[in-house]
Design a protein that fits this description.
Blueprint: H1 5-20, H2 22-29, H3 34-64, H4 70-76
Length: 77
Amino acid sequence: MGISGWFVWIFLVLFLWRVLGLFPVIHRLREANSALCFKARLDLLEVVGSLLLFGGSLLSFMVGNPGSGSASQASRS
């Protein structure tokens, strides 16, 4: 059973949402307070981990579903 196109769009939206979440975290890293800076580092670790998770999941879905690429659709016509 193939993965539909809307599922890929959901992962792309989640990935972009997390990328936008990086900017406030990077801004908080520049704070002078060491406690806030430490919390910002933990948040940065969380955001980067979720980006790796979403990106890896999207890549595995795209590789695992050979019928979803545009090259395979062009070869079928």
